[in-house]
Amino acid sequence: MVNVGDTAPDFTVPKAGGEAYNDLEPFTLSDVVSDGPTVLSFYPAAFTSGCTDQMCALRDTMHLFDDLDAQVYGLSVDLPFAQNIWIQQENLNFPMLSDWDHEVIHEYDAVLDDMYGMVEVAERATFVVDTDGVVTYAWVREGDENPDFDELTETVREAVEDAV
């Protein structure tokens, strides 16, 4: 697992911006970390209730991250076209990253290998990366428990403040 103090594994994946179903561009972590603290919020699958709760909690507290000049990205193995529709449907105010080839979830050791006993997806996890590319916060769900999203958002906000 990627731990606090580790250099964040770099990656390049498609980024869904949400303006249209084909609003896509490449995203490379190392290209953006110097712009401010970066929050990577891994989630199992778009359009599911727990993931919608997770992303909407971030949406509803985005002003806290904006005040810290932090960048927030959702990350899943969903195709970016589906992520774009989900962004629109839920009025999400941050982009999604598509790890459709499952490389990033393995690099960060945030893998749920049997969602519904059938498919490998991202485990619910959150990492904060500072402007030097160092992980300052790492949380990966264990078992089937979902986090208290209010508490998780507050904890991430504190980690981002510490990274600033």
From TrEMBL:
Gene3D superfamilies per record: Glutaredoxin
Coiled coil ranges: none
Keyword Repeat on entry: no
Keywords: Oxidoreductase, Redox-active center
Active-site residues from the entry: 51 (cysteine sulfenic acid (-soh) intermediate)
Pfam family, one: AhpC-TSA
PROSITE patterns in UniProt: THIOREDOXIN_2
UniProt cross-references to InterPro entries, sorted A to Z: AhpC/TSA, Peroxiredoxin_AhpC-typ, Thioredoxin-like_sf, Thioredoxin_domain, Tpx_Peroxidase_subfamily
GO molecular function list: antioxidant activity; oxidoreductase activity
UniProt keyword Oxidoreductase present: yes
Thioredoxin domain residues: 2-161
Name recorded for this polypeptide: Peroxiredoxin
